[in-house]
Amino acid sequence: MRVFVTGGTGTIGSAVVAELLRNGHAVLALARSDSSERTLKDAGAEVLRGGLADLDVLRAGVAQADGVISLAFGRDFSSPEALAAAIAEESAAMATLGEALVGSDRPIVTVSGTPSAPGRASTETDPVRTDGPVGERGRSVNALLSLTSHGVRATSVRMPRTVHNRGEGGFAGLLTKAARNSGIVGYPGDGTQRWPAVHALDAAVLFRLALESAPAGTAWHAVADEGDAVRDIAEIIGRRLDLPVQQVPEETFGPFGPIFAMDQPASSAHTREVLGWRPTHPSLLDDLENVQP
């Protein structure tokens, strides 16, 4: 299969590109810079130059592919306005990709987040949130999945709050970055709230499985660790960086603060049973031992 991939140089995307190529697929990847183009070509992918906002380029990518994996997302989370702009750009791109696939029966796999379910681990049947600071992402995913009635094999892989590799990435990575800047490892809430996690290399396998065989209109959970207590995550980061660990206000983390403070464990039992997905790489707590002082 020739697969058009957006976001192919990120933590998840680079692992997905390698996973696809390793399993006999060809990759056409979107690149918005010279450095991204070099990285993708070195990995063995073909390159289509353009950014996520270049909707005509996205249509051209779909026209050249047998399937699509949509992973690109902006990197500026410095303010609620910046986050909203990134979500709006992603939503427009996702709608464009879906529309270009109407009537083709070709697959598209998009990325979403695991939902929260009060008092228990969320499952694949729980709806994603369509309100709050990232509600538009949920609405965009739902709109894409609704295209199954228009000849699109759309599926969603829901990612946990931390997708990690070599001790970096996700919410845990943001805690580490903030700690290096502030001199303390701060965490919101009381620290007992749980974050699910997955290694990027394990997540990449699930994206490939969903592309190859997942039924239209389905959602899957790329969750290896059902829920690690945030205090435990912070303690390891503090030990690795030799910094004190303490509770800080939610506002410390800007638009992510309320999300950081939520208890949000998630299960992947259905995904493992149906798609045969088996995570094999280090857990988050083990991988955080790679954080460099």
TrEMBL record:
Give the matching InterPro entries.
Epimerase_deHydtase (IPR001509), NAD(P)-bd_dom_sf (IPR036291), NAD(P)-dependent_oxidoreduct (IPR051783)
Give the record's GO CC terms. cytoplasm
Q: Where is the composition biased (Basic and acidic residues)?
A: 126-137
Q: Which GO terms describe its molecular function?
A: aldehyde dehydrogenase (NAD+) activity
Q: Which residues form the NAD-dependent epimerase/dehydratase domain?
A: 3-215
Ranges for the region named Disordered are 111-137
What domain of life does the native source organism fall in? Bacteria
Q: What is this protein called?
A: SDR family oxidoreductase
Q: Which organism is it from?
A: Amycolatopsis alkalitolerans
